[in-house]
Structures are given as C-alpha cells and as structure tokens.
Amino acid sequence: MEGSTLADRLNLLFHAFLRPRDELGNRAPWTNTQVARAAEMLHGRAVFTAETLRLARTGTQVRGPSADVIAAIARTFEYLSGSEPEPGTASAIASFLCIDPNDPGTGADAVADQAAIGQQLRTAIDIRDSRFGRAGLLARIGGLDDDPETQAELERFVDDLEKKQSRRRRSRSHGR
Q: Cα(49)–Cα(151) distance, rounded to whole angstroms?
C-alpha cells in the first residue's frame, strides 16, 4: 500500500508543505534542520532533532519516533503551513502520521481516514505542480467551461501572469 510507512507519510508532508516563496518566487521543501528548529521555537524546547527526522524519513530507525514526537512534527507542519486546527479540533496531520495502516489493531475507518488525507495531500501537490491542474482549478473557480479552447486561453493567461510576476520579483530583488 502506497504511503503505508511513516517514512512515506513524512516525505509526503515535506513534499506537500513547501516553504514560502523566496524573493524570486521559487518554493523549496523544508529541510530537516529547519523543521527541527521551528519545532524548538514553537514548543520552547528541543522536541526532536534533524537527525531524528532524517532517520524517520529514511525508515532506518529501529524503533520509530514516539507518539509525542510525531504529534510535535504534525504541530510544526501545521504552524509552518498556517493550517493550525481550531482549539479542540483534531489534527488531520497528526492523524495522518499516527495511524499505522499496517497495524492489525488499526480499525478500517481509521485506515480509510488516513488514506483519504494522503489522497488529499497528493491531489493538492498535483494541482500545485501541474500547470493544467492550476488552470483547471482556476476555470472551475471562475465557472468557466472546461473545453480545450478555454483551457488553452487560461494557460496563456497564467503564463503571462507568471512572467510578469517573475519580472517584478527580479526587479525588487535587485533593488530597481
């Protein structure tokens, strides 16, 4: 089952929640060190290390991180992405990380929830990374037809906007 290990799920989170755009408009994944430092700042103490994340993401740990560490990782990604749940609301990211679909004691509903969250993350990545996906999303938001001609026009429009935005960012970063 794809995404069934903690390493798979952690790597999916790192791929889904990128750092904010830099001065040139580029986005990059968070590093293990950046996430560990953000967790330390957020929790007021070192909760896990970059090495803990590296081992968990490669699946080379003999014993996986504790539930407290997994919850801290989830909380850190929520903080970094600005998607913190309302107080008293369960964390979808914590559920996604904590549910082990390979554990025989895990109920079918929990496994289905974990799979649905993983699919939502993969869909968000696909939309973010796919030019057609972005244009299709814009078309649906704008109530436009999904025909090839409209899609082509949207693609040209998005291309033009991205070029203009890139020029503005370059101009700002060079102090012009």
A: 45
